[in-house]
TrEMBL record:
The gene is gudP. It is a multi-pass membrane protein. It holds the Pfam family MFS_1. This is Galactarate/glucarate/glycerate transporter GudP. Residues 19-438 form the Major facilitator superfamily (MFS) profile domain. Its main location: membrane. InterPro entries: MFS, MFS_dom, MFS_Na/Anion_cotransporter, MFS_trans_sf, Sugar_P_transporter. Belongs to the major facilitator superfamily. Phthalate permease family. The keyword Transmembrane helix applies.
């Protein structure tokens, strides 16, 4: 009893917020690497000689590998822990990002094939990144702070555009498109080694005191996630026999559908949006980098706002369903304002409507908070991988469909309708299909 009282009187450390800042940095690099083709794509098309449909297939190569890698990545996280797999993921995706800058040494179909291959390998290496983020957040944050924490690292996808799009646009203009891949790959390789110092389990982190660990444990954090051992003293891995329970749960199926639709908006903004500005609206590549940063700033603000609003609702109502569903549904409906771009000629109005849409998308992008709230504690990594696999199926399908829509029509009007329709379906899924949000208990 005396020890317990002593722990409660200690001033707790705030290492968990340093962890989420690091996740933010890693996620910003993650999305910066994904966005390289959006910035360098027009120059690459001109030099390497492929059209919008070819670009759609190259963009989808990332999604194909990313989806394939989700279940193995989640299994590896549960088996070997977050630290080692997170480090390897960052290191290898950064190497394959850098190698994309070498495809100019090839010609014709070989150039496209090598770009497809490096993009594919980058996607496979990135597969454990977001399940890792979710897993680390579930271990480090109590439920009443979790949405804010997830919103911080998830909002890095917008911040990535704010920071990296102008840099990549300038690099493309001054030094050629190859420099974009060399720069982004180099930054990622450096950051990968920082993960070895930053990522630890709460009970093992040298910067977290016992008061902080007890605080987050009492709030529902899974602080023992990577410390479970079986009767032989070995770390337990996930039981694949539980997989059927995950894919047959109505709540999770609704969450999966919602994430699929939300990711369609994400991949439009990080891949096709800069190309839309350059081709449909006639902006030069240097201006595109800065123009694309404006909606991204709004997305960043929306993302943080959505997380803070969700945790506010959680404290006020005590209901995960109200706290998570309200910002998701409101944000998705608001993001449909992108359709108004089809009815204006002014670049300023286009940026305004896209900024409104990006803000709404940011507010509603709480899928990973829902995942951290609902994933079974026995297989958080695999559950996150399955969630991300369903969600990122849109990274395969949507770039190809948008590419063919643009190639067929020569314009982006129906592509914007296609993307906005996904926002509506996401809102419907959370409002009607998901039902009560709670942590899933596996049947033994």
């Amino acid at each position: 009893m005396e020890l317990n009282n002593t722990v409660h009187t200690l001033k707790k450390t705030n290492t968990r917020w340093m962890i989420v800042v690091f996740l933010f940095i890693v996620t910003a690099i993650n999305y910066g690497d994904r966005a390289t083709l959006g910035i360098a794509g027009k120059a690459m098309q001109g030099e390497l000689g492929f059209d919008a449909a070819d670009m759609g297939w190259v963009m989808s190569s990332f999604g194909i590998a990313y989806v394939i890698g989700q279940l193995p990545g989640g299994w590896l996280l549960d088996k070997f822990g977050s630290k080692r797999i997170y480090f390897c993921s960052i290191l290898f995706w950064s190497i394959f990002t850098l190698l994309q800058g070498t495809v100019h040494f090839f010609v014709g179909a070989w150039a496209i094939s090598m770009l497809f291959t490096f993009r594919f390998l980058m996607g496979f290496a990135e597969a454990p990144s977001f399940p890792g983020n979710s897993r680390i957040t579930a271990a480090w944050f109590p439920a009443k702070e979790r949405a804010t924490a997830v919103a911080i690292f998830n909002s890095a996808q917008y911040f990535a555009t704010v920071i990296f799009a102008p840099i990549m646009g300038w690099l493309t203009h001054e030094y050629g498109w190859q420099s974009v891949f060399f720069f982004m790959g180099g930054v990622g390789i450096i950051v990968s080694f920082a993960a070895l110092f930053m990522i630890h389990n709460p009970k093992e982190h040298p910067w977290a005191n016992e008061a902080e660990v007890q605080y987050i444990a009492e709030g529902g954090a899974l602080v023992d996630m990577d410390q479970k051992k079986d009767s032989t003293g070995k770390k337990q891995g996930p039981k694949l026999s539980y997989l059927l329970q995950l894919v047959s749960n109505r709540m999770l199926l609704g969450v999966y559908l919602g994430q699929y639709c939300i990711n369609c908006l994400t991949f439009f903004f990080i891949s096709w949006f800069p190309i839309y500005l350059a081709t449909e609206r006639g902006m030069n590549i240097k201006a595109v980098g800065f123009a694309a940063a404006i909606p991204a700033i709004c997305g960043f603000i929306g993302g943080i706002s959505g997380g803070v609003f969700s945790d506010y609702l959680m404290r006020k109502t005590g209901s995960l369903s109200i706290a998570r569903k309200t910002p998701i549904v409101m944000g998705m409906l608001f993001s449909m304002t992108m359709i108004f771009c089809n009815y204006v000629d002014s670049i300023a109005l286009v940026i305004l409507f896209m900024s409104m849409a990006f803000f709404g998308k940011g507010v509603g992008a709480l899928g990973w908070a829902v995942m951290a709230d609902t994933a079974p504690k026995e297989m958080s990594g695999l559950a996150g991988g399955l969630f991300n696999m369903f969600g990122n199926a849109s990274s395969i399908i949507s770039p190809i469909i948008i590419g063919y829509i643009v190639a067929w029509s020569g314009r982006f009007e129906w592509a914007l309708v296609f993307v906005a329709g996904h926002a509506f379906v996401a809102a419907f899924s959370y409002l009607i299909l998901v039902g009560p949000i709670k942590r899933m208990e596996l049947k033994k």
